[in-house]
Amino acid sequence: MARAVECAQVSYAAPDLEEAERFLTAFGFARIPESTDEVLYMRGTNDQHHIHVTHLAEKQRFLGATIEVESRADLEELAALEGSSEITESEEPGGGQVVLMHTPDGIPIRAIHGRAKAEPLEDREPFRFNNLSDKQRVGDSVRIKQGPCTVNRLGHFVLHVSNHDETVAWFKERFNFLDSDYFVPPGEEGPIVGTFLRLDRGDELVDHHFMLVLQSDWVGVHHSAFEVLDLDAVMSAHDHLIAEGFTSDVGVGRHLLGSQIFDYWKDPFGFRIEHYTDGDVVNADHVPTRFNGTASDTTQWGNRPPLEFFQ
């Protein structure tokens, strides 16, 4: 199976690129020069060429996710699987080669290799945190102004699917994903209706999840999540987005599964998007657990999502 390296990008269609850019800039992305009147390409501070794409269209819709793989051989392996495209040259800025696939529900998933890397953008250092027993910030004060935070990277995305087991098997056949944790119906021991998937990099530490697959009565993206520097970035950005007239969805709070401090927003077209920081990192030895609470129970503290959050 192909060795995934990173979430490369998520892609959407929307009827107003100016409004999309206004929100995404306030959220913390930077527009890249190759953007046009037809396609908006936004980047973070890391070396991915771009991580969020919006195509101009009459109606908003999710256009899928792109996963960076380790080698050309990974693309060849994926292209040989039933339903995959041949290896083609990417038509997006940064180039590279891609293989287009579709999940059992028809959601586009692209694998990419060889896309040009961007020069990382300059950013502040994360603030050190003085907890009760470990005083890491000595002689320095925290000073941060309200304003956009800096989005660094696309950390994960969440899909609603019509057949959880089939979709998880589809991804595992193609990529080096391991199970991190499971959702089961509240108060029950099964069946599994949601699986957090992570990369298998052996002893190397990776994020608790690369994606989440959820059984649902509708098909599409639940949210995409972008990592920021620290808690102060989350909170100052929250205040900035409120000041800019945007409405908070759910947040700020701390997740149970994955431990991330989260802040969810809706973009102007109804797509959910998340700032997060301080997530769990694990290696291949991590053992999955089963969670059988409600959506509200997934938050340890802070603004709790409503019961219908994952529906």
UniProtKB/TrEMBL annotation:
MF annotations from Gene Ontology: metal ion binding; methylmalonyl-CoA epimerase activity
InterPro entries xref list: Glyas_Bleomycin-R_OHBP_Dase, Glyas_Fos-R_dOase_dom, MMCE/EMCE_epimerase, VOC_core
Domain VOC, first and last residues per copy: 153-278
Pfam families per record: Glyoxalase
GO biological process: L-methylmalonyl-CoA metabolic process
Keywords, ordered alphabetically: Metal-binding
Membrane spanning residue stretches: none
Protein's name in the database: Glyoxalase/Bleomycin resistance protein/Dioxygenase superfamily protein
